[in-house]
């Protein structure tokens, strides 16, 4: 290796060093701390209990009376949100891909929900859904859909589903933009040739358009599964996990352990379990992608 090559390599290391330190301080160190605390007793209200705990924290979390409910709510919250976002994103992307008047304006407007901060969106929808003065109940009552104002965020049956609806409203523009970009790369010649051969609109969409959206769709869905599963702020702003834990998910359960019970051992154990779920999901996605690329 020449002197010039050694200097270039040294310079490259110096350029990478700030990014490496940033990663260690903001990602690696907190992650290692969480994993370490998950196998140790760490309760600020009972400092006499300390030391290695093994799997005790995990057992205590699993045997918590609200763990099964929170796990189910997390699955429902994630699946319904991602499915609704994808369907809405696909429909709006197809609509915005058509040659309609004012298309540029509609494309600019549809991004508005995505750029609204979660706290502002959550508080605004909470006010709109309030049974006393909420505009949603007013409209539904005037249209005859409901007889009297309904407490959408305060009932056991509708609290979580209402937050899912609001989350879909806010997040589907991300799918719209991603799918719209992919739709614009679909060959017009191929679609016209299929139409000449007698393929209908439905056949062209399912056999030509959707296969070309597969890569983008899987990527966006996988990213949003992770984002939605670990989302804390949206549900907390709107319901705080209530009523009676009806909308409590695993991230909110972690918050309660850490910030209300001050039991960082249990909070870290539950966070480690969620991390394990995410890693397993990533591995399955990677294996699926590798298998598809070989075929």
TrEMBL record:
The record lists the membrane-crossing segments as: 12-36, 75-96, 108-130, 150-169, 216-238, 267-288
Annotated keywords: Cell membrane, Membrane, Sugar transport, Transmembrane, Transmembrane helix, Transport
Q: Does the UniProt entry include the keyword Transmembrane?
A: yes
Gene3D superfamilies per UniProt: MetI-like
Which InterPro entries does this UniProt record tie to the protein?
MetI-like, MetI-like_sf
Keyword Manganese, does the record have it?
no
Q: Name all ABC transmembrane type-1 domain ranges.
A: 71-285
Q: What is its main location?
A: membrane
Subcellular locations according to the entry: Cell membrane
* Topology within the bilayer: Multi-pass membrane protein
Q: Which domain of life is it from?
A: Bacteria
* Family stated for the protein in its record: Belongs to the binding-protein-dependent transport system permease family.
Which named protein is this?
Answer: Multiple sugar transport system permease protein
């Amino acid at each position: 290796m020449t002197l010039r090559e050694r200097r270039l390599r040294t310079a490259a290391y110096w350029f990478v060093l700030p990014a490496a330190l940033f990663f260690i301080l903001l990602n690696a160190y907190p992650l290692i701390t969480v994993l370490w605390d998950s196998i140790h007793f760490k309760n600020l209200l009972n400092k006499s209990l300390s030391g290695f705990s093994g799997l005790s924290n995990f057992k205590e979390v699993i045997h918590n009376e609200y763990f099964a409910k929170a796990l189910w709510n997390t699955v429902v919250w994630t699946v319904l949100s991602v499915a609704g976002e994808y369907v809405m994103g696909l429909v709006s992307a197809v609509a915005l891909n058509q040659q309609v008047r004012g298309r540029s304006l509609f494309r600019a407007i549809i991004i508005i929900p995505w750029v609204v901060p979660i706290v502002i969106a959550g508080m605004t929808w909470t006010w709109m859904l309030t049974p006393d003065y909420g505009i949603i109940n007013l409209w539904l009552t005037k249209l005859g859909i409901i007889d009297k104002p309904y407490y959408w965020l305060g009932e056991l049956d509708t609290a979580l589903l209402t937050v899912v609806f609001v989350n879909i409203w806010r997040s589907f523009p991300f799918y719209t933009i991603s799918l719209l970009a992919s739709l614009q790369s679909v060959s017009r010649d191929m679609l016209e040739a299929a139409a000449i051969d007698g393929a209908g609109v439905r056949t062209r969409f399912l056999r030509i358009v959707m296969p070309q959206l597969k890569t983008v769709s899987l990527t966006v869905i996988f990213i949003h599964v992770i984002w939605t599963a670990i989302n804390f702020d949206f549900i907390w702003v709107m319901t705080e996990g209530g009523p009676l834990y009806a909308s409590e998910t695993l991230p909110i359960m972690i918050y309660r352990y850490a910030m209300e019970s001050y039991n960082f051992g249990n909070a870290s154990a539950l966070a480690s379990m969620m991390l394990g779920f995410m890693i397993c999901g990533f591995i399955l996605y990677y294996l699926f992608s590798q298998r598809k690329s070989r075929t």
